[in-house]
Amino acid sequence: MAASVRTFVRSLSRKNACFAAVLRQSDCRWFTGAAEDRSTHFGFETVSEAEKASKVYKVFENVAQKYDVMNDAMSLGIHRLWKDALLHVMHPQPGARLLDVAGGTGDIAFRFLDYIRSQQEKQQRRAMSLGQTPSWRDISDGYPAGGGAPESAVVVCDINKEMLKVGRQRADSRGVTTGLSWVVGDAEELPFNDDQFDLYSIAFGIRNVTRIDQALKEALRVLKPGGRFLCLEFSKVTNPVLERLYDAYSFQVIPVLGEVIAGDWKSYQYLVESIRKFPDQEEFKGLMEDAGFFCVQYFNLTGGVVALHSGFKL
Amino acid sequence: MFKDVVRLALGTARVYRRVSCSPLQQSPAASRVTVRSFTAVKDDVPPPFDSSLLDVLACPLSKKPLRYNPDTNELINEELGIAYPIIDGIPNMIPQDARLIRKDEPQTPAQ
């Protein structure tokens, strides 16, 4: 086990040497080479930071095809309510631009587009009811020609290609063509310019990120001033009785479901362990404030099983 | 009356056959196209890259804008000399998967 870690680390440093010449000019923490010295947690295991990223990648590569089915099975469909709650709190208006990080299969992105469309219809209905029939200019603005009002768009960014592939298939089957883009990218090193997005969401993804503080700083960077950061994540249950039931369910039932449905016990064991290692509501709120977000608040959903954190860049 | 019905039916059949015959003769190309659309063959042309993404995308390392190269289907950062591949219409912005284009290095199979 130690030998394989060493060879992996050595191969990483060989790759680092290739990039060192190129990147000497740019100051980026990514290739300091100290990643293998620092250790972090992978579920209940302790691994080096360099190893965690690749292990997490493998987990999601394995579960990608059955990801949505497993979500429904494990949460008994409640994950849909959590994601709907995220959208309601987000309350996006037409013209908003969303960056959905770790958004792999596109659940949040599809909900965002549906919500925007229903908001547009609501606005049109309100205008009609007030007796304001649309002029020719309003109608022609509605056509998707170049220029005109800024269109709402969502960019789905995920580090895992398999998850994005599944997401793209779902988009094709739904017939969603415009307003949706897919990018393979690292949450700790987002491939976007500063001050680009009105909204940033990361649903059930931030606990898989190796350095959460780095991901939060990147989120702050790509948000426009006045932009909102929203994070859905499993958190600490407030009620002790519910907590016992939840622990029993997590450790007894979920890996079994994972084995039966997806044929992968270990990935789902990692999932429930990583939930336990993630900081609780107040700690994560502190992390967000340290990164520079203002008006940080959280909402407990389903008794604290899931927490929705929100912060603004001001 | 029965004879009328039969005559009507035959007449429509004749008309139908005449209608269906003539387009086939006039536009053989059209029928060829429809046949091709039923085959489950993957497109040779990869799905087009969304150029509106170019406004938003930047190199994750230097945050500088990128240039789209349609020949190799890559996003190129001139300054650092790296190219990010676009696979299946999805740009891959992980630095480890990028290709160095300086010093004439061959494509490094990273990961």
TrEMBL record, chain B:
The family line of this record is: Belongs to the PREY family.
Q: Which UniProt keywords apply?
A: Mitochondrion, Transit peptide
How is this protein named in the record? Answer: Protein preY, mitochondrial
This protein's GO CC annotations: mitochondrion
Entries under HAMAP family matching the protein: UPF0434
Q: Which InterPro entries match?
A: Trm112-like (IPR005651)
Q: Where in the cell is it found?
A: Mitochondrion
